[in-house]
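Apologies for my clumsy wording, but can you show me some protein sequence, whichever is easiest, together with the matching structure tokens, please?
=====
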Amino acid sequence: ARGRSEAVPQYYGPPAPPFQAQSPVHDKPQQV
């Protein structure tokens, strides 16, 4: 139950950091 609860907050919170981390990688090649 804790694993699922941690997956919900991590998916709702860290979705921005992980998404931004991959965004720069895709944004760099796309902006270049």
In short: Residues 16-31 form the longest helix (16 residues). The CA atoms of residues 5 and 19 lie 20 Å apart. Helices lie at 2-12, 16-31.
